Amino acid sequence: MKNIDYFVRNEKEAALVAMVERLAEVFAGRAAKHDLEGSFPFDNIAGLKEAGYLKLTVPKKYGGDEISLYEMVLAQERLARGDGSTALAVGWHIGLVHHYRYTRDWPEELFERFCRDVVAEGAMINHFSSEPKTGSPTRGGRPETVVEETEGGWLITGRKSFSTLSPALDQFIVSAYMADEDEVGLFFVRKQDGVSIEETWNTIGMRATGSHDVLLDHVFVPSDALLRKKSETKSDGDGWLLHIPACYLGIAYAARDFAVNYAQNYRPNSLPGPIAELPHIESQIGIMEEKLITARTLLYSVADRWDKHPDQRIALQPERALAKKVATNTALEIVDAAMRIVGGASLSRSLPLERWYRDVRAGLHNPPMDDSVLKLLAKRALLES
Hints:
- Keywords: FAD, Flavoprotein, Oxidoreductase.
- InterPro entries: Acyl-CoA_Oxase/DH_mid-dom (IPR006091), Acyl-CoA_Oxase/DH_mid-dom_sf (IPR046373), AcylCo_DH-like_C (IPR036250), AcylCo_DH/oxidase_C (IPR009075), AcylCoA_DH/ox_N (IPR013786), AcylCoA_DH/ox_N_sf (IPR037069), AcylCoA_DH/oxidase_NM_dom_sf (IPR009100).
- Helix 6 runs antiparallel to helix 7 and helix 6 packs antiparallel against helix 9.
- The protein has three domains: 111 residues, Orthogonal Bundle (Butyryl-Coa Dehydrogenase, subunit A, domain 1), CATH 1.10.540.10; 106 residues, Butyryl-CoA Dehydrogenase, subunit A, domain 2; 146 residues, Butyryl-CoA Dehydrogenase, subunit A, domain 3 (Up-down Bundle), CATH 1.20.140.10.
- Strands 1, 2, 3, 4, 5, 6, 7 and 8 form an eight-stranded mixed sheet that branches.
- It is of the alpha+beta class.
- The longest helix is centred in the last third of the chain and has 30 residues.
C-alpha cells in the first residue's frame, strides 16, 4: 500500500511534491559519490535550475511561482529525502528569497533585477555572516570583515566561513563592520577580482554543501550595494529558517523508509520470516514513526500558522525555533533507530544509512542552537506568568 502523506493538502501541493520527488530520485543516485569526494553537486544545481526549483519563492510579478512557506517546507523535505546536502544548500537560496519577498530589505530595483536573473538564468544568493573568530552571527559577535568608503562606493575586506553554495554563486550578501558609524552593514557583492574561495569544507557530514571560506580583498562595491544597516533590519519572524528542520526531517524520513523496507525483506536463516516480525524490531519501527509524526506535525503546523496569520509572525518565533530543535534532535533519534534495525550492515558505505547518520549531526549546528531555543521559550514563559 502506497503511503499517503496527509501533509499534502491539495492538487497544487501534490504537483509540487511530484516534481521534487523526481529530482530527489536522481539526486539520490549521486549523493554517495559527492559525499565520498566532498565535491559540490553542480549537476544537481543544473537539475534544479532546469526544473524551475530556483524560482519557486520568487514573486509572481517577477516571473516566479511565489510559493508559500508551507509549500517551501514541503518541497525542501522531499528534496532532502534524495540528497540532504543539496537540499540544505539550495534551501538558503529559496529561503532567503522568500524572506526578502516579505521584508523588502533590498532596494526594489535591485531585488527585481536579481529575481529576474533567478528566473531567466538560475541566479542564486546566500548571506555570508559567519567568521572564524566570531562564530555564528546569532551569538552577536561583531564581524571582523570591514568596509571603508571610497570614491563611488565601498571597499570590503575579510573572510567568511561556512559559506554554503559558494562554488555556484555569482553574487552574495556579506555583513561588514562600518567603523565610522560603529554599525554593521549588509552589502550585495558580485563575484569579481578580489573575491576568492578557499576550499576549507572537509567535514564528517553535509560534505557536498560547498560551505568553504570566502575571502574578500579590497573588493569594490558601488554605493547602492549597501542593502541596509543591521539596526534597520526588518523581521518577518524568520519563518524562512524552517527550510533547515525540513531538510533534516527529510533525511530522517529516508532513513525510516530504508529501515522499514529492510526489516520487511531481510530474512536470516535463523528465522521463519522477516525481522519485521520480531517484537524488538517492531518496537524500533514504532519509535521512528512516533517521532517522525510528532516532529512533522509541529513543523507543518508552524509553517501553516505563519502563512495564515501575518500579524502573529513575530510572536510565532519561539514555536518556529522549537520546530527546528525538535526536528534536528528527532532526526538523530530516527536515524539511530534505523541503524539499530539494520544492524552492523548499517555501518557499511555501501548503504546510505552511515551517510545519513553523519549528515543529521550537522543540524545541531545550524541556527538556532538548542540552548538559544530553550532561552527563548523560557523568556516567553516568564513574561506570560
